[in-house]
Write a structure and sequence with these properties.
Layout lengths: L2 E7 L2 E7 L13 E5 L5 E5 L2 E5 L4 E4 L8 E2 L1
Parallel strand pairs: 2-3
Antiparallel strand pairs: 1-2, 3-6, 4-5, 4-7
């Protein structure tokens, strides 16, 4: 079962997700966004470059920084 929790406070967004084979369209957040990869590998394009986040990897997105996450 896929699960997604989104919390925003003090200009920071915290995301908690448990999903398989997901893809989002390119988007940006108005606030800082921090994510931690718990399982699998998250692929995303950031500033024109492919990035990979492995288990225990931390992702930080600046406000208005566009990215397009894909997970496996």
């Amino acid at each position: 079962m896929d699960k997604f929790i989104y919390k925003k406070a003090a200009g920071i967004t915290a995301l908690s997700a448990s999903m398989t084979d997901f893809t989002y369209k390119k988007h940006a957040h108005q606030e800082y966004a921090i994510g931690v990869t718990l399982r699998g590998i998250q692929h995303y394009h950031l500033d024109g470059s492919l990035q990979l986040s492995y288990p225990n990897g931390v992702m930080l997105f600046n406000p208005e920084q566009a990215h397009d996450p894909k997970g496996s």
